[in-house]
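Changelog-linked ticket: adenosine-5'-diphosphate example.
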Amino acid sequence: MSLTVAASTELLSAGTVHELLLRVREKTPRVHTITNAVAQNFTANVLLALGAVPSMTIAEEEVAGFAGSADALLINLGTLDETRRAAIPLAIEAARAGGHPVSIDPVFVNRSPVRCAYATELLACGPDLVRLNAAEMEALFPGRAGVEELIAAGTVFAVTGEEDKIESRSGDFRLSNGHPLMARVTATGCAGGAVLAAFASVETDRALAAACGLSVFNIAGEIAAARACGPGTLVPELLDALYAMSLTDIEARLKAA
Ligand SMILES: Nc1ncnc2c1ncn2[C@@H]1O[C@H](COP(=O)(O)OP(=O)(O)O)[C@@H](O)[C@H]1O
Ligand SMILES: Cc1ncsc1CCOP(=O)(O)O
Ligand SMILES: [Mg+2]
């Protein structure tokens, strides 16, 4: 299913964000997520609160079956070990064969040249979506060298931080929801990437999917921050806010400009 909406900041309406959220809740997509050991539990809970379903096996003998039968695949490089290295190409091949969107989160490529080289190889396979922070973007594409080619080939980049930018060949979105407290809890970036993967499974315009998914996640972060006492209570509040997210919440808070 695809909305006939061009990717442009003015056209990201609360109604569109809500429509895609309803699609996720209706479809309950399974997101096969090869993610880091730090992020696994929070990511699984974020997907469930959203209305999606997580699966997370990394076993070489099982991963193709799980990824091929899922609705989307997310590869997160946060704890890139031998088991994950063996699983990743098998999972990507299976997801691709099944026609499912592939997302990559190249965590900490700015801290590890080995990981940066590995991520560069992965990106060459042309993932549908890449979610990362600005430091990771700069490590992969110093001075933006090489990024335009990937965008022209169809990969969508979601660069997060205080402000978020979605870059795609059909246009860009600038988003400014979220809360600084989100950066005081581990794996919010990783879990947000899983939300984007879930949205990519219900909308073929992946830039629009990323913009809607990130808006939902960051609006939940804002609602949670208003209720939380600090990072500890932000986590359960964020899960509750995702679960209860309404059109009214989105209309009241969406900041896309
Ligand atoms: N200062 C901030 N203000 C608002 N939202 C933020 C802020 N910092 C991070 N976020 C949000 O928190 C999530 C994690 O982003 P980020 O910290 O960039 O990822 P990572 O953890 O991968 O570095 C994203 O959804 C982002 O939009
Ligand atoms: C702390 C840590 N170490 C390896 S992965 C990871 C979590 C990173 O999460 P995020 O990229 O969402 O901040
Ligand atoms: Mg990250």
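Closing comment: Example verified and attached. Residues 1-10 have pLDDT under 50 and may be disordered. Residues 133, 160-162, 164, 178-180, 182-183, 188-189, 192, 217-218 surround adenosine-5'-diphosphate (ligand 1) (CB under 6 Å).
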